[in-house]
Inverse folding.
């Protein structure tokens, strides 16, 4: 290929040397982070990704996947039709978690809107409350959403989640993303939601109730690894 035939490098949207601007040039387009969310636990085909993103059109998703592949965030097995995150793409999990933590402090969140299985699993990793009831520090739960299933393990203050074909855990909660979010974060008991046919329970009811009691959408202060100090009186900005 001659130099003349090479594809020109697109001009970045943010022509800055700022690291945040560089990150947004790579994955700051609408839907990009949510595509990462849907691929965080396992590779998926196009239609499976789209199922987790209501409102996105096929053409927009095709464009985002192409951009993210070019940016090195994902790979595409054309033979199998499967998209998978690269190590760089998986490295965006703390970004998603940070947005979830910040969103807890922002007004207007509506939990009745669509919640994908991956979205619920990531949010639970953020919204675990400290164990204060003397229960063992290791426990496990299964979540079955129909086309996707997960195991979640709580060990010594950490949450470990993986996608599986069938959970092998003391109990499994089954239902839609919104139904299981209601079981995890709502005020109703697991037993009452089962009676109302909102969710299905397979296994130990008491263990399931203890497990979901460890999660809460209570707003928390957003922490940072650095401090921003008040401007000095001699700073160039306007006086307060």
């Amino acid at each position: 290929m001659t130099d003349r035939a090479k594809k020109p490098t697109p001009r970045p949207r943010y022509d800055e040397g700022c690291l945040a601007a560089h990150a947004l040039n790579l994955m700051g387009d609408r839907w990009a982070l949510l595509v990462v969310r849907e691929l965080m636990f396992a590779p998926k085909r196009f239609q499976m990704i789209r199922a987790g993103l209501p409102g996105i059109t096929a053409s927009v998703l095709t464009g985002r996947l192409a951009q993210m592949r070019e940016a090195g965030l994902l790979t595409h097995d054309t033979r199998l039709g499967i998209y998978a995150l690269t190590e760089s793409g998986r490295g965006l999990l703390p970004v998603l978690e940070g947005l979830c933590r910040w969103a807890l402090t922002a007004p207007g969140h509506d939990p009745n809107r669509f919640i994908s299985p991956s979205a619920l699993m990531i949010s639970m990793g953020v919204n675990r409350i400290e164990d204060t009831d003397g229960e063992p520090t290791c426990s496990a739960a299964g979540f079955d959403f129909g086309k996707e299933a997960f195991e979640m393990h709580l060990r010594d203050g950490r949450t470990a989640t993986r996608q599986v074909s069938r959970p092998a855990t003391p109990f499994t909660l089954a239902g839609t993303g919104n139904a299981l979010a209601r079981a995890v974060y709502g005020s109703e008991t697991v037993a009452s939601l089962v009676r109302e046919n909102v969710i299905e329970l397979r296994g130990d009811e008491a263990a399931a109730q203890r497990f979901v009691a460890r999660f809460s959408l209570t707003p928390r202060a957003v922490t940072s690894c650095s401090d921003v100090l008040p401007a000095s009186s001699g700073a160039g900005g306007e006086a307060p």
About this structure: Residues 14-90 form a domain with the Arc Repressor Mutant, subunit A fold (CATH 1.10.10.10).
